[in-house]
Specification:
This protein has a domain of 54 residues. The chain contains three helices and no strands.
């Protein structure tokens, strides 16, 4: 029982947590900057393009890794 708890603790995905935190901070900064820029200049800046591209890359890569891992698990289960 104790070995299972240690294995679960070792499997914590710190890189994933750090990436999500970084993404949240980046998006919050870009949104604040975009709102400020819209207020000061009256133009939509390129920040919205960055926000869209960042979000698109994040969700596409997340889906890719989910599919890849499920395929690996299926192969291991069959093999």
């Amino acid at each position: 029982m104790e070995n299972e708890e240690i294995k679960q603790e070792e499997c914590i995905d710190y890189e994933g947590k750090a990436a999500r935190f970084t993404l949240a901070l980046l998006l919050a900064t870009l949104i604040i900057w975009a709102i400020y820029d819209k207020y000061k200049t009256g133009n939509n800046g390129f920040q919205w393009t960055l926000i869209s591209a960042t979000t698109l890359v994040y969700f596409n890569s997340k889906q890719y890794f989910i599919r890849r891992d499920s395929k690996r698990k299926r192969i291991e289960k069959e093999g």
